[in-house]
Specification:
- Keywords: Oxidoreductase.
- This is Indolepyruvate ferredoxin oxidoreductase, beta subunit.
- GO terms for molecular function: indolepyruvate ferredoxin oxidoreductase activity.
- With 199 residues, this protein is an alpha/beta fold.
- The chain has a single domain, classed as Pyruvate-ferredoxin oxidoreductase, PFOR, domain III (Pyruvate-ferredoxin Oxidoreductase, domain 3), CATH 3.40.920.
- 38% of the residues lie in helices and 18% in strands.
- A hairpin with an 8-residue loop joins strand 2 and strand 3.
Length: 199
């Protein structure tokens, strides 16, 4: 049996990847579960890639080995493609229907990728594609897309949904608590009531 449940959250600087990983860490603390995490920021401040590794109940290091993640949460379609090698074939991917085209694509005159071609390249995975921007606007703020995505992935995470929502309330700024709590619930509803894996 695998000793930990490994989640990789990926996105672009400014999308709230680190906050999302903090929410998961707080939820583990609430449930008295061990958790190890690590973030790599790189050129995040300039729109670069950000990845957060979260290992629930793990006994070893905080970095996930490629090909072994249990869940990949991607805040951008291209980031899902960039990090898909962390999942085994058939692995679970929850991805935002959002695409930031890197400047280098335009500079080099390359073809701009589209959603259909990216999803085709991810067809060997178990994919849930979520329109987080629309749901975040419905919740009251476009800045809550990261929490929408956590809600959408919550059925795949071995933590109680009420624990995750409480962790959201503890981790976001006080004036945004209700917006983010609503964003979490909307994301969860959009992905369906998928049963969480056993702890």
């Amino acid at each position: 049996m695998k000793p930990s449940f490994d989640i990789l959250i990926v996105g672009i600087g400014g999308q709230g990847t680190v906050l999302a990983s903090n929410v998961l860490g707080e939820a583990c603390i609430i449930e008295h579960r061990s958790v190890r995490s690590a973030e790599t920021h790189g050129m995040a401040q300039r729109g670069g890639s950000v990845e957060s590794h979260i290992r629930i109940d793990g006994k070893f290091g905080s970095l996930i080995t490629p090909g072994t993640a249990d869940l990949l949460i991607a805040f951008d379609l291209l980031e899902a493609l960039r990090y898909r090698h962390y999942l085994p074939a058939g692995g679970r991917l929850v991805v935002n229907r959002h695409l930031v085209v890197p400047t280098s694509v335009y500079q080099q005159g390359l073809a701009v990728p589209d959603e259909e071609s990216i999803l085709a390249a991810l067809s060997d995975l178990d994919v849930a594609c979520i329109d987080a921007a629309e749901l975040a606007e419905e919740a009251g703020s476009s800045l809550s897309q990261n929490i929408v995505m956590l809600g959408a992935a919550s059925g795949d995470i071995p933590l109680r949904p009420e624990t995750l929502e409480e962790a959201v309330r503890r981790c976001v700024p006080p004036k945004t608590v209700e917006v983010n709590a609503k964003a979490f619930r909307l994301g969860r509803a959009a992905a369906g009531e998928r049963g969480a894996p056993a702890p």
